[in-house]
Every structure is written in C-alpha cells, then in structure tokens.
Design goal:
Low-confidence stretches: none
Number of strands: 0
Number of helices: 20
Order of helices and strands: HHHHHHHHHHHHHHHHHHHH
Strand content: under 5%
Structural class: mainly alpha
Largest sheet: none
Distance between the termini: 25 Å
Shape: globular
Length: 524
C-alpha cells in the first residue's frame, strides 16, 4: 500500500475515531456535567488512561515505535526466531512491569490522587474509587502498544486506527445503561466504561494477529541483543512520555488557582485542536514510521539522502494542511465551540474562555506536527535519547512561560506558554537533527512553504473579516450556516491559489483524485 493510500485510509478511520470521541465527551457532559464526578474522573484517569493507554500504548507511542524500529528489518527478512524471541520477551516483560504498575495504582490510589491538586472530600473519594477500577488499564496499555507495533510491521493499519472507537463506545454504553441520577453510579459508569473500552481495544488488535501468533516462535531471552536494543529504545521514549505528562501536571497546577472552569476550558479548547491534529498525525506518521526506519537503517546511504527524502515526504503535507487549519480555527473555532458545547450549563462566557484557549493552542499546530515527524526520524535512527533530553526543554519553557504569562492572561497564558514551549522544542530538535544528518529540509520543501504562505494570506484576511461580521449575528441559525459556508469557500480559495502557483503537492492530490474519478466513470 502506498503512503498516500495508507494515509487516506488512516485519515478516514481516524476521523471516525475522533467523531466518536467527540460524541463521547458530549455524552459525558450530558450525564455528568461539570461536577465532582468529572473532576474526579479527570484526576483518576490521568495515569492509567491519559498517560498509559493514550501516550504509552497509543499509536506512535513508545511501545509501538520501539517494536517497529527494532524488529522491522528482521520481520522483512523472515527471521522468525529473532523477532519471535524479542516479541515473546517484550510481551512477558510488559505484563510483569505494567502489571506491577497496576497493583501500585490500586494500592496507593489515595496518595496518587492527592498529587493532582487540592480536591474536595467528595471528589477525592470518587477519584480513589475510579482509579482502583481503572488500575488494570495500565497493564492493558503496554500489550496494546506492542500489538500496534506488530500490525505496523505487517502494514496493517485498520484495527489500530479503529481502536479509539472501542474506548469511546465503552464509556458511552456504560453511561447509557448504568449511570443514574446519583454521582456514585455516574462515577462507576465512567470508570468501568473506560476499562471495558480498553479491553475491547486489546481484543480488536488480537483478532487479525491470531494466525501470526499461532506460527510465531516463542522464547524468552532477557539477554538477547535485539531485546536489549528494544529496551534501549523503549525506556527513553517512556521517560520522554512521562516528561510530557509533567507538562499536564504543570498546566493543572497553574489552572487550579484561576477562575472556576479554567481547567475545563483548557480541556475543551485542546479537544478542538486535537481533532484535526490527531487525524493528521495518525494519518501521516503511522504509515511513515516504517519507511523512516528502513531509510535510516540503509547502510549504503551514508549521507542519509533517503531518510531526508522520507522526512520531506511527510513535511510537505504537514505544511500544506496545518497552516490553513490554524487560520481557519482562529476564524471559525468560536462558532464550532458554540455549536458543540454551548448548551445546558455551558454558557456564552464559557465559549469565549474556551475560544481564548483554543486560539493560543492553535499557534502550535504546525510546529507540533513537524516536531512529531522529527521525533520519528530520531527513532528511525535508533536514537530515542535525544527526543527525551529535549523534553526537559519543554518542561522548563512551559513552567517559565506560564509563570510569566498567567498573572496577566489567565488560562490563555497557559495556552500561549504551551504553544511557545512546543515551538522551542521543535527548534532544538531541528537543530540537533541537522547536526546529525546535515541540512534535512530540501529546496522543494522551502519552495512549497513559500507557496503555502502566499496561499494562506487571503485566509487570514478574509477569515478575520468573516469573524468580525459573524460574531454579532443575532440569529444562531444564520451564524452557524454562514460560518460553515465561509469556511468551505476559503478552503476552496486556498486550494485554487496553490493550483495557480502549480504547487507540486496539491497538484499530486488533484491528479490522483482525477484519475480515480475517470477510472470510476469508465468502469461505470
């Protein structure tokens, strides 16, 4: 499967996953609102769900990336004994280590929950209850991540991309059938739904691998050189993800002292950002990681020319998509927030606060996406220590900038500080990669960036004019209708300008869709 076809398929599946995730959050808001239950769930799910399941065991996470980077060459050469031995040892070690982590979460739940800030007695008791239910998710996450890696080696991207839907369905089904009017039943439903969703994710990955596991060579060897290589890649990546979790703690620490609803505003604002960004990163980086790894391990390519080609192959679509997404979110994100969340206890003032967070977070979309691409390039080179080391830069920048900006800007200062920290992290990684392989951004990519910038200028100007006109529209129906139509119209203008500039990336997409359309008409 070509990168374009794989990316298109994953984008569609990721879009479906994000759609279900959005519905899940609306269902949570409907049944639980902004209450002690949702506050407790936020504290309880921080380690087992948000950290372990999404960051460690998720797509492009440490387990996934370490498996692909270590075993792809052996799998392609058909060395069943080698990759079977490493996989067996990796699975056993994950069960032991992550299992002990689950036990620790259960036993020390009260102490762990207290780390995330001062909670009321009711919220604290519900959070402890939920964390103990969620503890097994920590164990499950490691297994899911390893299975993602195996499926990536087999170029099978469907079930991993569908996996988040299972997590969302678990929560929605549990709330629908088991949530009552009392907070205790709501807390149980949220926690058990999350656990059931994690189990469903695991089962979904096992189904297409049943034949693989029947034929796999089973052998545990802690001293195997390839397993040691896997560990050397995994541990720094896990630590890097842990450092990323520290950023979440910093955000919660600063938001805790602000007006009520600031933490929720940050969550909802980030949700709007992650909807397009998550789809983009999953669609591009999941199929690109094996290609980056293969290019980096090509011993005949001493100047890393193939690796640079692969990096730029991912870079150009990122530039083409993220710049207009940033501008369109700035112009129409407010109306999306109102449409999605402004009902019940979510007021117009909450929409403005969430929009403020979203605008500042949107500034980091491009650098965030390129940063993740460069991290995968380092993983392909067998180097996970560099991304880990640069994570400390992000922590220090986030803390320092938040300390400086929050007194004047409130929760918007946290968002702006986070975006600036992501930009600093990207700049450091770009510089370090240049030192490692030489100048990696090719002339075609610079030219593409110039054309994308020119095409984005009308979006910035017309989008600002459209926002100014729509924000005072008294009719909600016309406001939402105009916002949607203007957004589509500006997107078309952007594509037409790129076509007029004969941009290679957009012309490639147009020619691909044209060929498919002609083929279907001829077949019809």
């Amino acid at each position: 499967m070509s990168l374009l076809r794989a990316a298109s398929l994953i984008a569609l599946l990721s879009l479906a996953s994000k759609f279900f995730g959005l519905i899940r959050d609306q269902v949570i808001a409907y049944y639980c609102g902004l209450s002690a239950v949702t506050d407790a769930y936020q504290a309880a799910s921080l380690i087992p769900a948000q950290f372990a399941l999404i960051m460690l065991g998720g797509l492009n996470g440490p387990f996934h990336s370490a498996i692909v980077s270590t075993l792809l060459k052996h799998y392609e050469k058909g060395e069943r004994t080698v990759y079977g031995r490493v996989l067996t040892t990796a699975l056993v070690s994950s069960v032991i280590v992550m299992g002990l982590g689950s036990v620790a979460l259960y036993v020390y739940a009260p102490e762990i929950v207290l780390l995330w800030g001062k909670l009321s007695d009711q919220t604290l008791s519900l959070a402890v209850l939920q964390l103990r239910i969620l503890a097994p998710v920590f164990l499950i996450s490691g297994l899911i991540g390893i299975l993602y890696g195996i499926l990536a080696m087999k170029h099978s991207f469907v079930t991993p991309s569908l996996s988040p839907i299972m997590a969302s369905l678990g929560v929605m089904v549990a709330l629908f059938f088991f949530a009552g009017p009392d907070q205790l039943s709501q807390a149980h439903a949220l926690a058990w739904g999350t656990l059931w969703g994690a189990v469903a994710q695991l089962v979904l990955q096992v189904i297409p691998l049943t034949g693989f596991f029947k034929e796999m060579h089973y052998e545990v060897s802690w001293k195997d050189p390839e397993f040691q290589s896997y560990v050397h890649l995994l541990l720094p990546a896990v630590l890097s993800s842990t450092i990323g979790q520290v950023n979440i703690f910093i955000i919660q620490f600063f938001a805790a002292g602000l007006r009520e609803g600031s933490m929720a505003a940050f969550r909802f604002g980030n949700l709007i950002i992650q909807l397009p960004l998550g789809i983009l990163l999953t669609a591009l980086l999941v199929p690109l990681l094996p290609l980056l790894t293969a290019a980096a391990r090509d011993e005949s390519d001493t100047q890393h020319l193939l690796l640079k080609d692969r990096i730029n192959q991912g870079l150009r679509p990122i530039l083409m998509l993220t710049l207009p997404i940033t501008l369109l979110l700035g112009a129409y994100g407010f109306f999306a927030i109102r449409l999605l969340f402004e009902r019940g206890q979510f007021t117009a003032a909450d929409s403005w606060l969430t929009y403020e967070v979203m605008v500042f977070l949107a500034l980091s979309i491009t650098v965030y996406a390129i940063r993740d691409l460069l991290i995968r390039a380092f993983y392909g080179l067998g180097d996970s220590r560099t991304p880990f080391s640069t994570s400390f830069v992000t922590i220090l920048a986030t803390f320092g900038l938040s300390l400086l900006l929050v007194p004047k800007m409130g929760v918007g200062g946290i968002a702006l500080g986070s975006s600036a920290a992501a930009g600093i992290n990207f700049a450091v990684l770009a510089w370090l990669l240049r030192r490692r392989i030489g100048a990696w951004m090719q002339r075609d990519s610079w030219l593409h960036l110039a054309k994308v910038t020119v095409a984005s200028l009308p979006l910035a100007i017309l989008g600002a004019m459209s926002f100014g006109a729509l924000v005072h529209e008294p009719s909600a129906f016309w406001m939402f209708g105009r916002a949607i139509s203007d957004c589509i119209l500006l997107s078309i203008v952007y594509v037409l300008i790129l076509m007029a500039l004969k941009d290679r990336e957009v012309m490639l997409l147009v020619n691909t869709f044209s060929r498919r359309f002609r083929r279907r008409r001829a077949g019809g």
